[in-house]
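User: Teach me something about this protein's shape.
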Amino acid sequence: LSIVPKDNKAQINMSKALNRFTKEDPTFKTYVDHETGDTIIQGMGELHLEVYVERMKREYQAEVATGKPRVAYRETITRKAPFSYTHKKQTGGSGQFGKVMGFMEPCEEEFEFVNKVTGGRIPTQYISSCQKGFLACMAKGPKLEFPVTGIKVTLEDGGFHAVDSSEMAFQAAARGGFLEGYAKAKSVIMEPIMKVVIETPNEFQGSCMGLINQRRGIIQGSQEEGVMSVVESQVPLSEMFGFSTILRSGTQGKAQFTMEFSSYKQVPQSVAEEITKKKADEKAAKNK
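Assistant: First, the predicted structure itself:
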């Protein structure tokens, strides 16, 4: 469960409360998700967490709003795209100049940089600046500001100025080149897929499979071990919030499940549109 304090006073009271709760209850855990910036609380179940949220409001007067944790989506590209960008700036004194040319393409690694510049078109001391510029863009995607992954950037050519070129200029040129190439490379949103293993009595095997199918899950196999069945599947993380309660009520509390990260996969078009709309609404609310 993610919790957000209403104001500054609530923030201070919330941190006091969380500090005490984690000390008195070893099953209650809290951490800050570094990607989404959310404060996340974990416990034995939803009722367990609701009790603590209620105690926070009652004993510490910490007004907090609860919600689903945000999912750490990723962006990536689906096709090869060229870029050619010149960064030129002339102010008083020496200006800034840097030119980068090359292409970007999808790859298996998180980020790969290949330098194919020949004939000193970009001096070697500036190549690392270009790499830094490209890498800086990976932290926040131009499309929806999710981290970017799976891109190989190949630098083929460029240009420099004896006076105006600097490390800063080439970093800026690399950023401009990245944005230009990214816009043409047909970017898509990726979502985390979890490997979910459910252990259930045989009579509830069918209803467990039904629960997975309702959540855009793919069943990979099931086997019976005596009176128990093990169902293995892959389900998007965004569909797994509140699953433990639903699983319990669907199996009279007899089933349990484990979940671990499996991979990132492209989201379906309908879900991508939903995420885009949500992001736009968040931005509009921030700008108000």
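Now, about its shape. Residues 75-185 form a domain with the Ribosomal Protein S5; domain 2 fold (CATH 3.30.230.10). The chain has a mean pLDDT of 86. If you'd like, I can walk through any region in more detail.
User: That's plenty for now, thanks!
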